[in-house]
Amino acid sequence: MGLFGTGLRRICAVVAASTAADMSKQVRSALRQTTTVELRLDWLRSDAERGRFLEWLAKGQPWNATFLATCRRREGGGKFAGGVDRELYWLIQAREAGCQWCDLELETLRKLPGQSVREYPVPPRVLLSVHDFERTPDLPRTMNPPAHGGVDAVKIAAEARTIHDSVRLLRLARNSRSFVAVPMGDVGLPARILALREGSALAYAPVAEATAAGQVSLDEMKHLYRAHVLTRRTRVYGVVGEPVGHSLSPLMHNTGFVARHVDAVYLPFLVHELPDFLAAVPELGVRGFGVTHPHKQTILKYLQECDPLAAEIGAVNTVLVRRNGSLYGCNTDYLGVLRALEKKLRIKGGRVLIFGAGGAARAAAFALVRSGAAVAICARREKAARELARAFSGEAVPRSALSTQSFDAILNATPVGMHPHDGVSPLAPSELNCRLVMDLINRPQKTQLLKIAAQRGIATVPGVEMLLAQGFAQWGIWMARRAPEAPMRRAVLAALRAEENSRPR
Ligand code: NAP
User: CA dist 433 to 85, 381, 404, 408, Å?
Assistant: First the structure.
């Protein structure tokens, strides 16, 4: 049994707002998800608000929850403008209001007589916190609470610049007792989610506004990543790219794992350099990963085995980590294009125009040619179009010819029309001489190009169909069985709908 209990109790909701009223609202919302709550008293905008909030907290007793009070001074990276004596004053008030724990920065402890908080009537249990907002410092092999000073547990929150940084912090969590590991920053996000399984006593997640970069919301920590049920046996998957923040893959794959009761988790890995991530694969227990921009080509040189078609395309978006640790790469983007199109088009014998000559255009072109279509490429740089066309012995079509030529299908493989440029179309109505238009863009679902096509009575296929189809194929490769397509599809479409509804119209 950990310091804060087991299961969900180890997910600590962070409550942080500038007014007592908002703090109280957040506490109520936090308690619907977990029973361990950090109260960021330093976020309250004045002493009056702090007093009001603690009065409210005291009145609500008993709460059947564990409250951890924090009044972090600016010196320690918090918002509290007062000195050490005022910080201690508010922590003492927090105890009066029923807080069982407090967070005390190392900077504060060092200023106390005898470097001990024992003499002060702060909450009975003390978490000593050490922050490094710049980097992950050199770490010892183990970290246990010091014998003196009245400290019950130690927390290290450190910016992870690399995956290796976050792995070092997780290692420390594995070797320590009464320890809280908080890898910070977007690169540290996966390790933040994995911290509990490595032995961290807590994982923090904000109820509302993030209080630090790379935080995962309470809702996502609990429902999307299920951080509290992950163990060393849990298989780890993820998407590797830069950026990965908007990826829908974690939602899609984790939904699949839950639907099929698979003990696995899918995480977004923000990776600057592939070797940094690849070195961490064995230690993190990664069994497979998706690869996205800008690593789809670079990954090839790190693979021990590659599917011949992916090698021919020159891009890999799916890697399977074999039991012996070797990496096998393949490409499901091409399958995604085919699955998305074949419902509405007979590909064999068809004539398809691809607009764009980048990575997605290349995968689509190879897939369609392999399936028996005649493929033409049109791009703003005619040279790029000619080079791609030459790679699969197809034709390049100049832009000026589009209004006079007709095709069975036209695919947009450029980012033109992607949110936030929703109102723009890469092609004019007069250039859409075809029976079907597919846009590879996912956001928005109905792009301006698809709207124009629909107005002209042309059948349309949104990019999300490709995203889903390539994701189902990935899931199948990793799990060696068919993906639960219906729940995965529902989750992704609902998320996109919610995103679109939340945008100002
Ligand atoms: P990429 O490698 O960067 O290629 C982009 C292509 O679009 C290049 O040919 C580029 O031309 C062209 N382009 C960019 N801006 C343009 C403009 N203003 N006018 C005309 N052409 C322009 O990107 P990618 O990976 O192929 O991705 C392309 C699109 O497909 C993106 O929207 C991406 O989100 C989408 N995609 C969707 C899925 C899915 O699952 N639905 C999968 C992969 C990609 P230059 O070379 O001249 O810049």
Answer: 75, 22, 8, 8
The predicted-structure confidence for 226-266, as pLDDT tens digits, reads as follows 999 999 999 999 999 999 999 999 999 999 999 999 999 99
59 belongs to the catalytic site: no
Question: Could you give phi then psi for residue 102, rounded to 5 degrees?
Answer: -135, 155
pTM of this structure = 0.94
Residues paired with 291 in a beta bridge: 240
Residue 330 parent element (H or E):
strand 327-330
Distance 415 CA to ligand 1 centre (A): 5
Ligand 1: distance of its center to the CA of 466 in Å? 14
Ligand 1 pocket test: which of 335, 411, 440, 446 has the largest number of ligand atoms within 8 Å of its C-beta? 440
CB 34 within 8 A of CB 11: yes
DSSP class of 304: S
Q: CA 284, CA 288: separation in Å to the nearest integer?
A: 11
Q: What is the 3-state secondary structure (H, E, C) of 367-413?
A: HHHHCCCEEEEECCCHHHHHHHHHHCCCEECCHHHCCCCCEEEEEEC
- Can you tell me the distance from the alpha carbon of 26 to that of 16, in angstroms, rounded to the nearest whole number? 8
Q: How far is the CA of 413 from the centre of ligand 1 (A)?
A: 5
Find tokens 């702060």 and name the residue: 122
Note the Cα 389 to chain centre separation in Å: 36
Task: Give the residue from 308, 309, 310 showing the smallest Cα distance to 299.
Answer: 310
8 A C-beta contact, residue 169 and residue 183:
yes
pLDDT of res. 1: 66
CA 194 to mean position of chain CA atoms: 13
Residue ranges around ligand 1 (CB below 6 Å): 293, 333, 336, 356-361, 379-381, 384, 413-416, 418, 426, 440-442, 463, 466-467, 470
316-345 residue pLDDT tens: 999 999 999 999 999 999 999 999 999 999
Give the single-character DSSP code of 222. I
Measured from the CA of 356, which atom of ligand 1 is nearest? Answer: 9
Which of 242, 353, 355, 380 gets mutated to test ligand 1 (max ligand atoms within 8 A of its CB)?
Answer: 380
Ligand 1 centroid from CA 381, angstroms: 13
Q: How far is CA 370 from CA 331, 379, 394, in A?
A: 14, 21, 12
> Count of CB atoms within 10 A of residue 505's CB?
4
Q: Which atom of ligand 1 is nearest to the CA of 293?
A: 25
